[in-house]
């Protein structure tokens, strides 16, 4: 018979308290704010579903969501194939393998705001290497004023920062393929493409799924880098969801609409996280079943 | 399992169930009391007044009842899970789900259904709530 010792539950209490203060209480407060209006000094008045209605019909929110989806789509379309390409061409063993690994992980170690600052200076036409060079080549590049320049810079920055993650994950997937697979492919005179398509890609499926979901989630909630680089501008060109949210909540102090907005944002993230969780547990089961 | 073992297990669970249900019921009474206090009159519930004016977290009766209901669902499903443990099953989504998973999916789907209802301006929100119950029933049956 199983022993019933419910006292062990008390060991979970510290975690519960921590989560309550860092997640549950703020979330409940946001829910409370989302159905009320305030004029400051902590006085609240009932507003019902007004803010949800307003936000659902707000062009501003849909535009920010649109920009967010386009941004996540573009960086995934670049980072995933590029990451795989880099991983395929990295040395498999020896000094250069370690050297490449260290080099690849460097961008991952840099904090977001520093990445933003690096690119902000790098792209400046007067003192930045990138901006100055492009200007000298006669290309009209100014990320603070041009729509395309701002987007190109934000995307390049993200690709620079995070392709390494995809590459490192893909590399780990590649390293786990036994040599016997490649030998068998050689005997069958398989082409390079066939080796990639039928050996390497299936073996990388698990880590690539994780890479895609991680990058999607991270890019979907991106804030610091574009905020430091462009501040959401020029105009609203690079105002992604979280930047717009902070503008609304802290800049304009529209707590009600911002709360309704953030709850909807939260629901979307929740769905993505759940899909992530399902995929991860299914992968675990598949690995365990082998 | 012998008969005595069976009763012992159920008795030890009764205490646990009480420990889960009692705080939840007490919380419900407290919310009701706070709702009456907010109106300033005996036996009158003020639905939209602030439960703690100028206080922390800006509570109001509908949100308090919402979280109380969600807590109640968690208590109910915890009790069900202890009383009647189940093996996960595979439904129309092709993923393995337990009752708890289905509750999570049902709640999440209900949130989106309510938002869609509001966005498309299809009518009063209580109709969406009824649809949510239907949706939840479908999720518990087929997912």
From TrEMBL, chain A:
<dbReference type="InterPro" id="IPR052730">
    <property type="entry name" value="Sugar_ABC_transporter"/>
</dbReference>
<feature type="transmembrane region" description="Helical">
    <location>
        <begin position="258"/>
        <end position="280"/>
    </location>
</feature>
<keyword id="KW-0813">Transport</keyword>
<protein>
    <submittedName>
        <fullName>sn-glycerol-3-phosphate transport system permease protein UgpA</fullName>
    </submittedName>
</protein>
<feature type="transmembrane region" description="Helical">
    <location>
        <begin position="148"/>
        <end position="174"/>
    </location>
</feature>
<feature type="domain" description="ABC transmembrane type-1">
    <location>
        <begin position="65"/>
        <end position="276"/>
    </location>
</feature>
<feature type="transmembrane region" description="Helical">
    <location>
        <begin position="69"/>
        <end position="88"/>
    </location>
</feature>
<dbReference type="GO" id="GO:0055085">
    <property type="term" value="P:transmembrane transport"/>
</dbReference>
<comment type="similarity">
    <text>Belongs to the binding-protein-dependent transport system permease family.</text>
</comment>
<dbReference type="InterPro" id="IPR000515">
    <property type="entry name" value="MetI-like"/>
</dbReference>
<keyword id="KW-1133">Transmembrane helix</keyword>
<dbReference type="GO" id="GO:0005886">
    <property type="term" value="C:plasma membrane"/>
</dbReference>
<feature type="transmembrane region" description="Helical">
    <location>
        <begin position="195"/>
        <end position="217"/>
    </location>
</feature>
<dbReference type="Pfam" id="PF00528">
    <property type="entry name" value="BPD_transp_1"/>
</dbReference>
<keyword id="KW-0812">Transmembrane</keyword>
<dbReference type="InterPro" id="IPR035906">
    <property type="entry name" value="MetI-like_sf"/>
</dbReference>
<keyword id="KW-0472">Membrane</keyword>
<feature type="transmembrane region" description="Helical">
    <location>
        <begin position="95"/>
        <end position="122"/>
    </location>
</feature>
From TrEMBL, chain B:
<keyword id="KW-0812">Transmembrane</keyword>
<feature type="transmembrane region" description="Helical">
    <location>
        <begin position="16"/>
        <end position="36"/>
    </location>
</feature>
<keyword id="KW-0472">Membrane</keyword>
<protein>
    <recommendedName>
        <fullName>Small integral membrane protein</fullName>
    </recommendedName>
</protein>
<feature type="transmembrane region" description="Helical">
    <location>
        <begin position="103"/>
        <end position="120"/>
    </location>
</feature>
<dbReference type="InterPro" id="IPR018678">
    <property type="entry name" value="DUF2160_TM"/>
</dbReference>
<keyword id="KW-1133">Transmembrane helix</keyword>
<feature type="transmembrane region" description="Helical">
    <location>
        <begin position="56"/>
        <end position="82"/>
    </location>
</feature>
<dbReference type="Pfam" id="PF09928">
    <property type="entry name" value="DUF2160"/>
</dbReference>
<feature type="transmembrane region" description="Helical">
    <location>
        <begin position="126"/>
        <end position="142"/>
    </location>
</feature>
